[in-house]
Amino acid sequence: MTPSNPLSDEYGSFGSTPLESTAQLMDRITSQLGSQLDRVSLDGTRRAAPGTASRTAPAPALVVVGHGSRDPRALAAVTALIERVRELRPGLTVRLGHIELNEPLLTDTLAAATGSAVLVPLLLGRGHHVKHDIPEAAAGAAHLGTRVAAPLGPHPLLVDVLHDRLVDAGLPTRLGRAGRRTCAVILAAAGSRDPESATDTRRTADLLAERIGVPVVPAYASPTAACALSVPAAVRALAARGRHHTAVASYFTAPGRFATQCADAADWIASAPLGAHQAMARLLLHRYDQARTGAMAVPAAARVPPRQLTSA
Fold this sequence. Notes:
The protein is of the alpha/beta class. 44% of the residues lie in helices and 12% in strands. The protein is built from twelve helices and seven strands. The strands form two sheets. It has a four-stranded parallel sheet, with helices on both faces. Helix 3 (72-88) packs across helix 11 (278-293) and helix 6 (156-169) runs antiparallel to helix 11 (278-293).
C-alpha cells in the first residue's frame, strides 16, 4: 500500500536521528566473537591457531531455519537475507531449511550436511517450532553435531528494523505533543498458543514504545487464548481512546498471508515485513555465535521431542 503521512504537515518536519550505536556495537561483537569461535569446536575443545601445523577444522555451518510460506515473495526475502549474512561473514557455510511449505525442508538440509551445524530459527519468539519442531529435526540428524540457537526476538536490533520500516512507511521519526497524543502503533504478529511467545512479543512492543514514544500494542493475525487481540480489534480499541493515527508495524520476517492481512487492517500506515535488513543479518550471526558458546540456546528440556516428554 502507498502510505500517506498527514502528520508531516500537521505537526511539522521531523529530523531523522537513527540509533547507530546498537548496530555498530553488534558488528564489532559479532566480528570479534566470530573470529575467536572459529577456533572452538561444538564440544568446547580448542582448535589450533591458524598457521600452526595442525589443520583447523571449519566452523559449524549456520543453518537458517525459516517457517516457509506459499507466498513466493517470502522465499525471495529469506534468500536475500542469507546473502547479507554471507557478506558479513565470508567463508562461513550458510544453509537454509524450512519447517514446512518451502524447499529445502529442514530435514533434507540436515541430511545433506556434514560435520557440525548451528540451527538459528528465523522466528521471533518462543513457541512450538522453537521448542519442539526444530530441536526434534536436529536430534534426528544423528550424523551431525548440532546446537539450536534461541529465536531472534526479543532483541534491540529487531526494534531498529521495526523503526526503520515504520519510518519508510511514513511514520515521523520524532513526534510533537499532538502526535504523541493521537498516534499509536500496533505490533502485528502471527500469534501462538504458547504464552511465552506472547510474552516475547509484548517485550518487543515495550522496546518499540520506548524507542518511538507512543503506545505500542501487540495484536495478532491468528488470535489464540495466549494472543487474544486481533489487529482490527486493536485498531478499534485505540481509536476509542483517541488514537486516530494508528500505524501497523509488521512483525513478520517476510511477506505472506498474515503480513498482508494485518497491513490491510491498518487505518493509517503499515510497514513492510522485517525482510533482508542489515540488522537482521547481524542478529542471525549474533544468535549463531551465542549458541556456539552455549550463552543462549534452546534449553535441553525443550529439545526433547514432545512424545518423549509425555512418556517420561
